[in-house]
Amino acid sequence: MTMFLDDDEVIRLTGKERARSQQKALNKMGIPFRVRADGKTLVLRDAAQAFFDAPAKPAAKVFRLNLSNA
């Protein structure tokens, strides 16, 4: 097994085929990556594994303004 995810694995992880779209998806997921000189996205296998091993983040509280008594 290699240190980096291959192209097909990055596509499966992000659901995107274009490098720039992959990078945006990885940013949203919080998975670190690097961009090669040819524009391809490099993701460490350990970084992707750490993303899936991490506990789920709790849902953010939504605050709403109550105007019913105004």
Note down, in words, how this protein is organized.
By secondary structure, this protein is mainly alpha-helical. It has helices at 7-14, 19-29, 45-53; strands spanning 34-35, 41-42. The chain has a domain at 7-53. 40% of the residues lie in helices and 6% in strands. The protein has three helices and two strands. The mean pLDDT is 91.
Name a few traits of the molecule.
2 strands, mainly alpha, 70 residues, two-stranded antiparallel ribbon, elongated
Helix content: 40-55%
| Low-confidence segments | none
Give the N-to-C terminal Cα separation: 63 Å
Radius of gyration: 17 Å
Reconstruct the topology from this structure.
Layout: H1 7-14, H2 19-29, E1 34-35, E2 41-42, H3 45-53
Antiparallel strand pairs: 1-2
In a few lines, what is going on in this structure?
This protein is 40% helix and 6% strand.
